[in-house]
Write the structure tokens for this entry.
Amino acid sequence: MDLAQALRFNHVPASYHTVSLVGAGGKTTALFQLGEELVRRGAQSVILTNTTHLGAWQVSLAEQHIIATDLNALKEIPPHGVILVTGDFDNDRATPVDKIILNWLREYCEGKNIPLLIEADGSRQKSLKAPAAHEPPIPEFTDTVIVVAGLGTLGKPLTDEHVHRAEIFSQLGGLPLNQIITPDTLGRVLAHPQGGLKNIPPHARRVVLLNQADTPELQSIGGNMARALLDQFDAVIVGALQKNSLQTFEHTAGIILAAGKSTRFGSPKQLLDWKGKPFVRQVAETALQSGLWPVVVVTGAFAADVESALNGLPVNIVHNAEFAQGQSTSIRAGINSFPPSPRWGERAGVGAAIFLLADQPQIPADVIRALVESHTQGMYPIIAPLVLEERRANPVLFDRVTFPDLLKITGDVGGRAIFSNYKVEYMPWHDDRLLLDVDKPEDYQRLVEDETL
């Protein structure tokens, strides 16, 4: 997965993006790499610029370079390719563009639907940094900020040799100078209001790029860091830019469909006993143990009893007053419980949702975690388990790109109604427990008698 896909910049030139990159450990590499990827995806051109100094060697990475000391230099911008626009050279560095030119570039790019990528921080080629009082110079009109950090410095001492502005990094991370830099220390700096979060516009999407994760150990460390950083960031990307090997971590919600009337069964299936717990509580506990967030339980029939069965669990309960009209209404209720993002018009903080059925208490946490892991690696629109090599099973993961279509379905149908609209990624799973749901009393009898469950 390349950087553009990891960032969800898949619909070029349909979407206009203004992206600022800050931090250290691959920022300039990400700038140029993202520009090239967007052109390959269909952008006629991409403009790169800077609000901080760029080294001469960095400028040389550009195939097309415009030195803009005034607006006259921008009269004939090349119509194709990746174009770098900087200020004039000062010794061995290109100076930042001034505000007049920056604002002109913004209007130009917006008018032509051209991505504008901005290097908005300096790091002296170190893998980590902390911002000084005047940093980072992020334009207020930025709609995505990528905070870059190089994991290659983990395990090394906190000194100026390895970290730009080591003393400030020490203060923000709570680690004395010369001590070994740990993932926890880096996480604290990235999540600090005066660290990784500094000067990010309130409306902007926040993304951390944990670069230099070029070994399985560093990838694992990055993944563990990502789960904690999602409290402050919309997404965390982990991997190695030079290898184009990236994973995207976002919150995956769990939506438990527990609104049915259980007509065929004859009594509330949501409340049947499973190893001493009501079905719905067991499903909710499994979702929580799997790391899903938020966990939403959609109620309908028997709402008071179902809610009582969930007492004490950190879940969001949403009542679907239209449950009698079919499962599609519960799907809509679950998705609509996610608050919309003011900038992106999407569901804030949620990258995907896994739908769980209240009549499948035997679903293991392992399959849920496997679905989430598969999604981080490919950002697939739909991922479904495939049992016995040919039978699709539940639960199914839906990326947020599918949410608009899920909100349109009607009647007593589920997410399979939109399978024909997307490429479905099937995940082999050797456990036929996933195929059993409880529709009739004999199904329940089979469930409780099967000692393998």
About this structure: Residues 251-449 form a domain with the Spore Coat Polysaccharide Biosynthesis Protein SpsA; Chain A fold (CATH 3.90.550.10). Residues 27-40 form the longest helix (14 residues).
